[in-house]
Amino acid sequence: MFVTRVISDGGLRWSKTGFDLDIRLPWYRSLPLSTVSIAELKIDGQSIAPDAIQFELNGKTFALDELSRHPEEWWFVLDSAYLHVSGTTLQPGTQHKVTATVGIKPPYIPGFYRLTECTKQLAVV
Amino acid sequence: MSKQNGLRLGCTLFSFTNEYHGRQYSLDQLLERVAELNLGPGVEVVGFQSIRGFPAISDEFAGRFRNLMAKLGLEQSCLDIQADSLIRPDKPMTPEESFAYHEAQIHAAAKLGFPVARYQFLAGPDVIRRLLPLAERLEVKLGLEIHAPEKVNSPNVQMYREMYGQVNSPYLGFIPDFGSTAWRISPAFINYFRKLGLPERLIAIVQQLWMQDDDPKNPHGKIQIFEAKAREAGFRPEDIAECFIVFGLFSRQEPRAWLEIMPQVVHIHSKFYHFDENGSESAIPYEKILPVFVEGGYSGFMSSEWEGHFFCDDPGFPMVEAHQALCKRILGRA
After folding, report:
1. CATH code at B263?
2. Residue B98: which residues within 8 A CB-CB, separation 6 or more?
3. Residues of B whose CB is below 8 A from A37
4. Which of chain A's ends, N or C, has fewer CB atoms near its CB within 10 Å?
């Protein structure tokens, strides 16, 4: 059930500039980034501004509003992507409620837009 | 490859999406487990699910895949290819681009040893017609999946039936998906909606509308009718959106309708969701459907296809075992 898989268990990590989150594609098959969006990221109920989030996949980093321009970049269904958040500092070992909402437009189903929202309570590692 | 006649069993690795997406089983481990549990011999694969970098297939990958399949006594049944016309959502592929996109996937099917490639409506009859010489040369049959809400006689299927009638090639055919021969929405989804906390009145509207006859000219129309009705009744848009999927997974059709296209059936998606206390599928009448394919003389593979990842985290292997036990009982092979 994809709703439980968007945020990986143990996927909340401390970083020098803020925190990182390990996320998965909520679909059964690989999709190009042009069909994927990060609709929302919240930590302890607070929305993170999209321009404070960088999206990393296949060793490359993108601004959230750039994803739609990358039909050539494929998110393989078994791989994690990483959200790098700056400006919100979390202490290692502390517990936080994280919500991530990923949108997809499967490119073979016209008009179908699916949002999958996942919330987990995670310790910063 | 053996040339056996009649309806042969197998499964699609799509049934194990929970195990695979959860990184509990790799592709190779799924194949090993399928062999161990005797859920073949047919194995169907979704290219964009199981193969990194699809449709590019390295010689090394193809060799390893073919060797493992042979070693395990499994047979390639069908490779699922996709009509991803909306990779750029605001700029659909041109027919030229779609042709090239399918061409690469048909080459992948041939390289991996699949005799059938499942294709999707969005390809369009013209692109498929132009791909026929390639399919004939590579000996890969192209099968259009007839998936709910489409039916044997719906306008989208008729377009292909007309084209097939003109070119008359055994390399063009159909792949029935049994979700389009359901008699109700699977209780698996109704239970899931309740677990999500959707209002009972909304669930009642879904079921009531689903039971009404389709507009034969527009089988996709029910989603809009449902949305309008549910909005008018004041339900939350996100709750309404959660229900859309059942209109695209289940539709009603007499099982005997498949006889009309039986000589053109090249593979089967034996879709299932949930079993009742007797081991029968709770919404898809297998006891009526399978005898139709026996009567019609279907010869080829039927993949057990469980779609449980939409509503639960349960593993697919026990479900496919139960499904094949049901099919064997109906076919008198228990």
Report:
1. 3.20.20.150
2. B83, B85, B123, B124, B127
3. none
4. C
Beta carbons of B122 and A110 less than 8 Å apart: yes
Model ipTM over 0.85: yes
What is the rounded distance in angstroms from the CA atom of residue B272 to the CA atom of residue B307? 7
Residues B19 and B73 in one domain: yes
Domain count, chain B: 2
Domain of residue B225, residue span: 187-246
Q: Are residues B196 and B148 in the same domain?
A: no
The CATH class of A2-123 is mainly beta
Sign of the four-CA dihedral B253, B152, B113, B125: negative
pLDDT tens digits, one per residue of B137-191: 999 999 999 999 999 999 999 999 999 999 999 999 999 999 999 999 999 999 9
Q: Is residue A8 within 8 Å of residue A23, measured between CB atoms?
A: yes
All structural domains of chain A with their residue ranges: 2-123
B310/A71 Cβ within 8 A: no
Interchain CB distance below 8 Å, B88 and A30: no
Residues 242-281 of B with CB under 8 A from A: 248
pTM, 2 dp: 0.96
Residues of B labelled as active-site residues: 147
Closest A-chain CA to B93: A107
